[in-house]
Amino acid sequence: MGHEHHAHTPGKDYGRFIATILLFCMLAAVGYRLQHTISCFLLSWVIAYLLDPLLVISEKRGLKRVYALGLLYIVLSVLTVFFLTFIVPAITINWNSFILDLPTYVLKLKQIASAWKDRIPDRYGSDEIQWLIDKASGSIDTATEKAGFWAYYFGTSIFFNLFNIVLSPILVFFMLYYKQIVIDTLTSWLPDDWRNQIVDIAHEVNNSIGGYLRGQVAVSIIVALFSTIALFALGIPHPLFCGVFAGVASILPFIGVIIATLPALFFAWFKFQTAAIIIQTACAFAVIYFVEGYVIKPLIFKQSMNLNPLVTIIMVMALGETLGFWGILLALPIASAIKITWGHFVRGDFKQR
Questions:
Q1: Cα–Cα distance list, 255 to 57, 127, 251, 261, 343 (Å)
Q2: How far is Cα 60 from Cα 52, in angstroms, rounded to an integer?
Q3: Cα within 13 Å of Cα(29), Cβ side
Q4: Alpha-carbon gap, residue 107 to 104, rounded angstroms
Q5: What is the pTM assigned to this prediction?
Q6: Cβ neighbours around 226 below 10 Å, total
Q7: DSSP letter assigned to residue 237
Q8: What is the pLDDT of residues 98-118, one digit of tens each?
């Protein structure tokens, strides 16, 4: 009997391994098909995460959660009306201006490529250089088509995702209202021996993720605001577009600073074509990111995640490729949650008691 047990154990383990792989593949396929639903859920979850501290403060002051939610939604409604009345038209005008100017930018790039080609002396290797310039010039048209398609897709995707935009506030309301019920239900499902330990880890992960998300949103808004003001003062085209791009790019660790400056530098060079404006633009972003890194972040992020830079880059790349924008935004919180949980596991906190 013992021989039969050992003979079947490897087969059972192999079967579990195959079943696990198939389960992950099925979840990935379902996630791909439900990407819009998942995106709406993640958007609602992040908003609820950001707003929950306001409700906690209200509850500590004796206000019931449902009344605090009602007051919060009234304030958000006023802010939404202001946003739709003033901010959205400004963003739309800036975006339309960028789309109209796009052919001019492409034509200028092709003229520059042609001028470089004419300046190449007839020497050894010049044919290869000219071939590279011709190849790059031909790629500009392809890039233009892709940029136009991307711009059109971006605009239409916002229109077709209006359902998600309308549904998100409803999901946020129920997430905030039933928060404690959901937590109590999930806690009751935990094993009795590990319940307290898992709850403590969950609180630790919650503090880390909540602090990061709220801090990152604040940092992105501040960077976008400062960048827009600086570029407007310098007279660089499309300051609002470049400012918003800089704010979003600040989510990326390490390389976000470099990526954020590229559109502003391009527009500055295109309009003025002087080294002075390039230096001024670069200095403006250097000051902004110096203040962001050494003043704003230390004030907002009270606790650092202390993640390895290599692990951070890998997580951002992997989850960004898998989940897109949401993967980039949630890469660091997920890495932090894994690190916290793994630290407790290594210390033996999950041993059977």
A1: 36, 35, 10, 11, 28
A2: 13
A3: 6
A4: 5
A5: 0.71
A6: 21
A7: S
A8: 777 777 777 776 676 666 666
